[in-house]
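Example 3.2
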Amino acid sequence: MIYSRRVRRYVAYYRGWCQAFGEHDIEQGPSESITGIHWLFGARRIGLILPEDVRKRFLKELVGRKAGEPFISFSRSSSEIRANGFVWPVLNGDIEHGVERLVALAQQHTELHMFLTHHLCYTPGTRIITFSVAKPLVILYKEIDPLALCIH
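Structure, written as tokens:
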């Protein structure tokens, strides 16, 4: 099954600023090492924390200003996440459950928003790629070009 849609995308007015993710449950992938990803499940939002070595590249691809429509793709069959031209192979099983919940969230709502958040429980500087049914705080974020989300 292939699922795709447009996601409204936001960036903070000031570099480093972002709102808190809020209360959530966390699910780590099968490897609890730094090479795994962490899914955060909150009320009407899903977050993704990537390992530090790939996080900066992904954030540049997702919120940077490049020509053309940016996209993020989750591949269940090859266990990889792709953001524009950057491909990151993920340890088997690390994306499956989070991707299923992301599809369910997106199918239940007409709009989906993507922006960066943080949480005090995580290392300072950690940014959470957040998909939410609610818009982020208007005082912190401005809307930019949409993002194409594809799950296959």
